[in-house]
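Retro notes, item 3 of 5
We never archived the inputs for the zinc ion complex last cycle. Fixing that now. Sequence and ligand:
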Amino acid sequence: MATSDLYYSHSGKFKAHAPIVLLFGVGLCSILLGAAYGIGNYYCPSVWISLFLPFGVGLAVGGMVYLVAKWTHIRNMTMVIVSGLVFGLLLEYTAFVAWVFAISEWEFIIYKPQDLRGLLAFLAVDGVWEIFGYVFKGAMLYVAWAVELVIILGCAAILPWVLLSPKAYCESCKRWITDHKSVLPFEVIKDPVAFKAQLERGEFAILGSLAGVPYSAPEYTSYDLSHCPSCNNLHLLSIETVSTTLDAEGKTSTTNTDVIRNLLIDAESMELIKELDPGDIPEPVEAPVDDPVAQGDPADDTA
Ligand SMILES: [Zn+2]
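Structure as it came back at the time:
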């Protein structure tokens, strides 16, 4: 059996109305958001806000593509990524039209590509932005516009892909798998590659070889089980390493790293893995410190 057959993978299918909802729903919202973004850039009072705006609108388009893809059961990641790129581009184009409309004091709506390109080339000669005294014009302005476009397209395409690709879908029951159970925390896997290879050979006994650790452990392994409760035919195992770090300001951040994602297992193996639950492991007891000052001198007590 090929390794790819051992894992869940998206079928590439989608509901018939998915492209229509994408086109009219996300398309219309991208045009409205693009117009607001273009006019917002014209009025934006802060350079710092204007630097973050492309990330905001790109993520907004990506979020809309994700919600529609989930709602219309799109299991085709190429369609999701292309949608993000197309609607990101539509937003950027509308933003330029709206921005030109704003800088022309609401006189000209230039929407034809060749006219818009000519006008932008004209504006680029003397520059249109100034950041910390530096006027962006000529080649530097084109570079800035290109960076803005890459940020918007990147956010719009990557966000829905990141959110949707780890999800699983039961083709028999026509539903996303939302039932998850985590069995944790176990010690960190020392050799993830060998561990993964053993699981792919069906040697599930290795899962029982990891010792449980306390919940406060800064780094641990988590077994995540998901299944389709409707047909009870689709069972999946994912394994993650979860690392918690504390920064200088006392803020904690958690990073999840996949060891395996959506390995197909049977119902019996799933029940056996659930039984591996390490339970509440007590914190390690620190060795008592032998400090005569802290403990007091017994001789003083007798005096
Ligand atoms: Zn099912």
